[in-house]
Amino acid sequence: MQKIVSLCKRRGFIFQSSEIYGGVEALWDYGPLGSLLKNNIKQEWLKAFVQNREDVVLIDTPIIMHPKTWEASGHLKNFADPLIECKNCHSRFREDHLIKKECPNCGKKDFTPSKQFNLMFKTFLGPVEDESHIAYLRPETAQSMFTDFNLARESMRLKIPFGIAQIGRSFRNEITTGNFIFRSREFEQAEIEYFVKPGEDEKFFEEWVDAWEKFIIGLGIKKENLRRYEHKKEALSHYSKRTIDIEYKYPFGWSELTGIANRTNYDLSQYSKFSGKELIYFDEETKTKYIPFVIEPSLGIDRLLLALLCDAYQEVKGGRTETTKSVKEIEVVLKLDKKIAPIKVAVLPLVRNKPELVKKAKEVYQLLKPHFICQYDEVGSIGRRYRRIDEIGCPFAITVDFETLEKEDVTLRDRDTMKQERVKIKDLVKVLKEKLEEK
Ligand code: ATP
């Protein structure tokens, strides 16, 4: 894990937030490459579940909702973890996260009785800080999909089964943090509330577990690093009839990457009760009214990004480039899928002390820039530069050499096969587009 964390810092993927002040626990900044990577993952999610489907619409709603929301959803009462405190050093822990009943800080075994600690961050709406102005930062994006149920359905004339999707930030005041971006206090979720006819919920639940897993594998995660975990009946959340987590084999062990829950008609019933507005569906064909059931696939974008980085990380002993002299030396290559790689193409002049090569390479860079996220690099030997771009998972590199000046062609290197081919400059955009779209 330490290797991933240090690569992320060194190469501009992820930084500790507010690092100049020593950082803030469980908050992370996405750097220049990390933001591009994260954005690509979100775009792929939107493509898979909104663009390519006819039954899912997207919404984008505020982090702060009406405070009544959290009463209706049950979060005020139930969204809590068991907190215990070491009587010796006063460190606090999540009880179910302690493997041995022993304080990880001082080793003593004397704890206070556990109490339920609500994970929602509290704030005030407006300038008056009293009970009646308390608001909460959402701990999940899901609730707006219920409060907007009528509005989205009516405005888009949606017929069951249909889904409302959202990607956005969520906040949880986690008791124990750690494992890099796996458990943060601010993170991003991509969720869908998929409304179905009661009785058809079990079939759709199965379909969504498969679709969710297929999407994750399609982004490049190896199947053998994923497994399903079915929640035991007695451990289900208050709203759930059935929950399956898809777990990933992170370097720190198998842990939840994403979860799919059958939330029944709990949420729509609760919101109808608390708001006084009927959140029901009228079936035109059978002329009947019912409260839809809902299947909720919920994905943490940060946990997915971490899994993708871990899965793509490879060390090659003896090296891949001519810069590696010793068989013991290790080169890192990040085999990110082309779809999500932050930089798609690197443009490199063979040497930088030949102005005509530099000029030509910059022309090629300008030609490609409107089409792809590119990087220009002229510093260091060509082997060293290949090494640098392999480390950030850039799938293609273009080298401008002396032949380019005569023949108007360049060398195109493929990160995975290491094959090099000559391509005419005039064909570069077309060839790269085809290669980037190849499965
Ligand atoms: P855990 O058991 O790990 O605390 P959870 O079961 O409470 O997670 P859910 O409420 O099901 O998580 O949230 C849906 C998804 O949101 C999770 O599968 C995960 O990908 C993501 N997620 C939840 N909490 C965090 C967090 N603190 N940091 C990053 N991602 C999170």
Describe what you observe in this structure.
The chain has 439 residues and is α+β, with helices and mostly antiparallel strands. Helices cover 30% and strands 28% of the residues. It contains 13 helices and 23 strands. The chain has helices at residues 2-10, 32-51, 68-73, 75-78, 143-147, 149-156, 201-218, 266-275, 301-312, 355-368, 382-391, 402-407, 428-437, and strands at residues 14-16, 28-30, 56-58, 80-85, 92-94, 115-118, 122-124, 134-136, 162-171, 186-196, 226-230, 242-250, 253-262, 281-283, 288-290, 293-300, 313-317, 330-334, 345-349, 374-376, 396-400, 409-414, 420-424. The strands form 7 sheets. The chain has a 7-stranded mixed sheet, sandwiched between helices. A 5-stranded mixed sheet has the order 20-19-21-22-23, sandwiched between helices. A 3-stranded antiparallel sheet has the order 5-4-6. A hairpin with a 4-residue loop joins strand 14 (281-283) and strand 15. The protein is globular and about 75 Å long. The mean pLDDT is 94. It binds adenosine-5'-triphosphate (ATP). Adenosine-5'-triphosphate (ATP) binds next to strand 10, strand 13, strand 16 and helix 9.
- Which molecules are bound besides the chains? adenosine-5'-triphosphate
Shape: globular
Low-confidence spans:
none
Largest sheet properties: 7 strands, mixed
Number of helices: 13
Mean pLDDT: 94
Residue share in β-strands:
25-35%
Distance between the termini: 29 Å
Q: Please provide the count of β strands.
A: 23
Binned, the helix content reads: 25-40%
The secondary-structure class comes to alpha+beta
What's the alpha carbon Rg, rounded to whole Å? 26 Å
- Side by side, the strands of the main sheet go 3-9-10-16-13-12-11
